[in-house]
Specification:
about 180 residues; Beta-lactamase Inhibitory Protein, Chain:B, domain 1; four-stranded antiparallel β-sheet; 5 helices
């Protein structure tokens, strides 16, 4: 997240929290932002317990032959998901932000729910289209130009990717 987007995000969050009377809560949340992404944790040193203490409980976990993977979507106000990779002994290998153009380009027709989950984590929302026998997994992210956007992965009734698309979001509900 670039500095300008971060400042806009903080300002928008502060405004929202102030409007609903949580300005004190905002200060606590702001103070904990240093570990929000886990970037202060060192690969090869940090253990699973360090990650839980710094980042909280993961939303989804799965095992691979190389070690466990934990997913931390930071939404709905945030626009990033972090995948945390461990080796077999439970030591941190890497923390990777995955809601970006490089990772989206890896999502291809025919992939399963599980394959998409393992590439970009869980969606912030799912929408069912019963007349089309399709489901959309939607991911809120910040595009290359710094705009808030949605990346959608459309699955058929068999749970396979049919297609993907991106859509920018603008204030006032206008989309491009």
């Amino acid at each position: 997240m670039n500095y300008l987007h971060y400042r806009l995000h903080v300002a928008a969050t502060a405004h929202l929290l102030k409007r609903i009377g949580f300005s004190g809560v905002f200060l606590v949340v702001l103070g904990s932002c240093a570990y929000y992404s886990g970037y202060g944790l060192k690969p090869g040193v940090a253990k699973e317990s360090d990650i839980r203490e710094a980042m909280g409980k993961p939303t989804v976990t799965w095992m691979t032959p190389a070690g466990d993977v934990w997913a931390y979507p930071r939404g709905p106000l945030g626009a990033q998901t972090f995948l945390v990779y461990f080796d077999k002994s439970g030591t941190l290998k890497a923390i990777e932000p995955v809601l970006d153009e490089d990772h989206f380009a890896q999502i291809a027709a025919g992939m399963t729910h599980e394959q998409v989950l393992h590439k970009i984590g869980p969606p912030f929302q799912t929408i069912t289209f019963p007349n089309l026998d399709q489901v959309s997994w939607d991911y809120h992210y910040t595009d290359l130009w710094g705009y808030s956007a949605i990346f959608s992965v459309i699955f058929d009734q068999a749970g396979r990717v049919v297609y993907t698309f991106k859509q920018r979001q603008f204030q006032g509900g206008n989309h491009q």
